[in-house]
Structure formats: C-alpha cells, structure tokens
Amino acid sequence: MFRSRWWSFGFRSTIMLYFVVLIVLPIIGVYTHSFSLGWEPFWYSVSDPLAWKAVLLTIRLAVIATLINVFIGTMIAWVLIRYRFFGRRFLNSLVDLPFALPTAVGGLMILLLLGPNSWIGELSERLGFEIVFHEPAIVIAMLFVTFPFVIRAVQPLLEEMDQSEEEAAYTLGASKAKTFFQVIFPTILPGILSGAMLAFSRGLAEFGAVVLVAGNIPGKTLIASVYIFGEVESGNPQGAAAVSVLLLTFSFLILWTVNVIQSRRAGK
Predict the structure, then answer these.
(1) Which of 52, 65, 97, 158 is at a distance of 20 to 30 A from 149, taking alpha carbons?
(2) Rounded distance, CA 181 to CA 179, Å?
(3) Which residues 6+ apart lie within 8 Å of 10 measured at CB?
(4) In this structure, which long-range contacts are made by residues 96-100, counting pairs with CB atoms below 8 Å and at least 24 apart in sequence?
C-alpha cells in the first residue's frame, strides 16, 4: 500500500512537471515577455496597422476555411459512416494524412499543384484570377491542415446514434431532409461545433503551409503567424510576443468553449 501510494504520487508529479515545463512555462514566458516593457509598448505593438491587418486577415480566412470544413467535413463523415464501398477504409485512413505530414510539405504540394507553372495555375490566369500568392491559396492551405477535425468529431456521434429514431421518422412520413434536420442534425451538432472551433483555432496558428503559398505581402497576404516570424527575424521579439498574446488568448477562449460543449455532451 505504501509503495503504491508513493508510485502513484511520483507518477502524477512526473506528469504535472512535464505539463508545466512543456506548456505552462512557455505560455507564461510569452505573456511575461509581451508586457516586459510595460503597457504602452505592448499597446503600440498590437495597434500597429500591419499587425491588425495580419490578425484580421487571419481571422477572416480562418472563418472561411472553417465554414467550408463544416460543410464538406460533415458530408465526408456521413459518407464514411453510412455507406459501404470499395476503398472506404483507405479513404478513411487518408483523412488523418494532414496530421502525419509536415505542414511545409502540404504547402509545397499546393504550390506544385496550383502554382503558376501548373496547368491549373495557367488555366486560372487565363480566366483572370490567380490562386497561389493570393488569399485563395491561404484558404486552401488552412483547409488542408484543418481537414480532419470536423470529420473526426462527427464520426463517433454518427456511429453511436440510435438509428431507430431515424427509422421512426421515416415511418411517420418525414422526408429525408426533414429527418436529417430534426433528428440527425441535433445529435451531431456538438461534434460539428467542437470540430469547427478546433479547425478555426488550428487555422489561426498555421505557418508552415501558408508561408510557402501566401506571398506574404504586408497588408494583403501577410497572416499573423508569418508576421510574428518576421518580427522575430527583424529583432523585435517584444512585438512578436504581443501579437502572439492576441492569438493565444483567442485560442484559449476557443478551447475553453470546446471543453464546455464536450462536457455538456458527456453529461447528457
């Protein structure tokens, strides 16, 4: 009993120490460094027009990517759970590919597929618009890195769903559309919301895939993570930390909301 208690205490202490060193201390370091010169330098850094444009551009494009992910991801989850077809397991395994690949590789694939030297890039230029080094490329890069979140959040809910309610709705004469929106959609909505917020939070922080395809033009295609990198490279770590605090606080609020949604779902 005595050894068991000491082992349990040591195990928990090791986990907490690991958590503090890996996550808590770096977060505290960012907040401390951002306010190290006082409130006025912090406000000057976060109120810089280029910084605000970068943050607002990141939020806007992350919202667009999230909305697309919600729509497409829900449909993909539905197909993978409700239908049986050749290659389904292979497609299901490909969903997690963005988690396994370095994001820079994803950016390189987008650059090779949609860049000026590709046939898609040449066709888009002939039609009067460009993809790479413009906002569409940033959205595509965000879509790539956030692709699995909604799918993996919705799939378990569809698997656990009692199909007798769905069959009862059909028996009572409800159409497929009405059954989906009144029976199925409320069940999978928590998964859609949590997956969407995780995808949005991940999109805010993306760097590797975006930096290769965005063009990084200040005020036009420069997103927040690349702006932070540029501030560090130019010898202004305090300014980089100040903008990082904005994104970090925003991500905290998103993750807290996700935890609340998941807790309520688990309590039902």
Answers:
(1) 52
(2) 6
(3) none
(4) 96/148, 96/152, 98/144, 98/145, 98/146, 98/147, 98/148, 99/148
Asked if residue 140 lies in contact with residue 129, where contact means CB atoms within 8 angstroms, the answer is no
Write down the pLDDT at residue 267: 59
Per residue in 216-239, pLDDT tens? 788 788 888 888 888 888 888 888
Nearest CA to 65 out of 197, 200, 195 is that of 200
Helical ranges in the chain per DSSP H: 2-19, 25-34, 39-46, 49-82, 88-94, 97-100, 103-114, 119-126, 135-160, 163-171, 176-179, 185-205, 208-213, 224-233, 237-267
Rounded average pLDDT per 10-residue block, the chain, 268 residues: 65 81 79 75 79 89 94 92 87 87 86 83 80 87 92 90 76 77 84 89 87 82 87 82 84 79 64
Among 21, 24, 41, 57, smallest CA distance to 237 is for: 41
